[in-house]
């Protein structure tokens, strides 16, 4: 929301906007009061805020999520390296078993 609509630059009393419907479908809508907006704060709760307060809320939310992503990124990279090592080991074992099976079939 913060990136798609810059609330501070709006000056029209009836703003054309897209209203999120069912997280999948967007339909045209009009914003009659550009000074007060209703924002989704999570878990089904909505809060009415001024446009400036809403902008500050989304900035803090974006900053928080960015910091959380930065915290978990090293752990995710480590897990990816470990997964690659396991996949390589499994591939080697499969090749060994395939070669062993071919050798045993040739002897029989």
Automatic annotation (TrEMBL):
One of its GO terms (molecular function) is unfolded protein binding. The lineage of its organism: Eukaryota, Metazoa, Chordata, Craniata, Vertebrata. One of its GO terms (cellular component) is cytoplasm. GO terms for biological process: protein folding; RNA polymerase I assembly; RNA polymerase II core complex assembly; RNA polymerase III assembly. This is Prefoldin subunit 5. Gene3D superfamilies: 1.10.287.370. Pfam families: Prefoldin (PF02996). Belongs to the prefoldin subunit alpha family.
